[in-house]
Amino acid sequence: MANGKVVLLLNAPCDNRFFVSRQAPLGLLYIASYLRKHGVEVALLDLNVMPFWRGRLNYLVKKLRPAIIGVSVNYSSRKEAIEICRIIKAVDPGITIVLGGPQPTISPGEFFASRADYIIPYEGERAMLEFARAGSDRSALRNVFSCRDAGLADSVRKADRYPVEDLNDLPFPAYDLIDIRPYYINSYKRKPIVSVLTSRGCPNNCIFCSQAVSGRSWRARSAGNVADEFEWLTREIGAGEISVEDDNFTADIGRVYEFCGLLRKRGISIPWQLANGVRADRLTRDLLSELKVSGCWKIAIAPEVGDDESMKRIRKGMNMEHFRQAARWCRETGMVYYAYFLMGFPFQGEKELRAIIDFAEELDPLLMDLSKIVPFPGTEIYDTLASGAGTNISYYYRGRDPLIERYYRKAYLDFYLRSGKLRRIISAIGIRQFCSLARYACRVLLAGR
Ligand code: B12
Ligand code: SF4
């Protein structure tokens, strides 16, 4: 094997013009460190931060000639992933290609009869290790599905998960294999920014959220294990700031207190943020103070909708008062807070969309972000609304609904063009980050994304 590399891991790129953050491919970094820990040689390329990736991929595949290439695919990179497979097979049809990540897990049928050979759905560490160690007969391997099998979608859906049972057993993500400088997030205190995952899964059942990869059972690393990772990232990897990306960081409040205490006790001083959102109903004034003292300067809360009736319909299990209270406590403790909203639910008419704008203004987070829902197979919203579309699913089931388009723009404009708002944002995050957010906002609003 040229250069002794056995497995090459690739993060499929996407059109980054419409994203406000670009983060390291944490899933692949975990797989890389797990393979390495078990003696498999591995290389990793994040094509998402590689300009002219097509040419460079072609060159690197020719140079490295790996036996296996694993490609991480999400919703936004699904078309590029198929193109990557074509490029690889044109260089050498003998290279085995495995797809993994959220999109092949959620919608495997899209990759049937593609140039990829296999899909490994769900959390990939264990199955990928067995795959890399196996010989050419892969028929008996667990959670490995052939892209030539007409029953691919069904087989993936029926498969048992094959997760890492104790997350403390995982080695830290292989940040030493990549350059961490190109990554950024919507706002930060200090670059470079790295992502950390302290738990996997979420027990809640919000009708729009796909928990396909890690499932509804919540598993967490110990406070000590996470503090060790923070220390390692700060002292050895050179991280300037950490973004915790858990789906449910506060499911065990005792663990959060213990973790914050450890950061202070060990003198680990690094700004960090909870950018993926924390449940407002798990917050207290005291917890926010504790987070703040331990270096967490920013959290996100996600009401998604603007009125109690809509909140019941999306089954978040909270009410608007939880968000009002959380915002109040954030202001009192000096914690910066962002709020996320969603448009495109079938029940949203003019009244519900107007309510989002009003509620966003009432909460008055430093930044407000709005997305249009994507009905992923496996979610309740998909089952009730988009079923029957088969693999030709249109991800925007309301299409370019003029009402949604109008309110989407209006929400941003009304929220940000209030008197003094832009000045407050500039004074909080500085002119440089403000300009980059403004460029992103213009692109999104002009393209109607
Ligand atoms: C951070 C994050 C972002 C960040 C940036 C991510 C990035 N790297 O650039 C931002 C904020 C920009 C973002 C945006 C979006 N995101 Co996002 N995001 C996440 C989040 C919170 C964490 C991702 C992460 O690090 N996970 C931790 C790692 C360990 O898990 P993992 O990546 O899934 O990897 C595991 C497995 O998937 C598998 N695996 C992964 N790759 C491979 C490869 C191989 C070969 C194998 C075998 C296995 C394998 O093994 C890994 C280890 O167990 C997840 C939620 C979540 N909990 O994962 C959503 C999530 C990934 N995002 C999602 C969505 C929908 C989006 C948006 C489309 C939202 C929108 N409407 O704009 C955009 C798309 C952006 C993009 N660049 O593609 C969905 C993905 C659905 C899908 N089909 O892809 C998720 C799952 C949230 C959800 N529950 O709906 N996102
Ligand atoms: S939206 Fe948040 S709380 Fe709801 S299921 Fe998804 S991760 Fe859990």
Describe the structure.
The chain has 449 residues and is an alpha/beta fold. The protein folds into 2 domains: 6-158, 3-Layer(aba) Sandwich (Rossmann fold); 184-447, tm_1862 like domain (pyruvate-formate lyase- activating enzyme, Alpha-Beta Horseshoe), CATH 3.80.30.20. The chain contains 15 helices and 14 strands. It has helices spanning 26-37, 53-64, 78-91, 102-106, 125-133, 152-158, 223-237, 253-265, 285-293, 308-313, 320-333, 350-363, 380-386, 402-416, 421-447, and strands at 7-11, 42-46, 68-72, 96-100, 118-119, 145-146, 193-196, 199-200, 219-220, 241-244, 272-274, 296-304, 336-343, 367-372. A 6-stranded mixed β-sheet has the order 2-1-3-4-5-6, sandwiched between helices. Helix 12 links the parallel strand 13 (336-343) and strand 14. Helix 2 (53-64) packs across helix 3 (78-91) and helix 9 (285-293) crosses helix 11 (320-333). It is globular, with a radius of gyration of 22 Å. The relative contact order is 0.09. Mean pLDDT is 93; it is low at 388-393. Bound molecules: cobalamin and iron/sulfur cluster. Residues 202, 204, 206, 209, 211, 247-248, 279 line the site of iron/sulfur cluster.
The sequence of SSEs as H and E is EHEHEHEHEHEHEEEHEHEHEHHEHEHHH
User: Major sheet, described briefly?
Assistant: 6 strands, mixed
The CATH architecture of the largest domain would be Alpha-Beta Horseshoe
CATH topology of the largest domain: pyruvate-formate lyase- activating enzyme
Low-confidence residue ranges: 388-393
Which sequence of strands runs across the widest sheet?
Answer: 2-1-3-4-5-6
- Summarize model confidence as the mean pLDDT: 93
Strand content: 5-15%
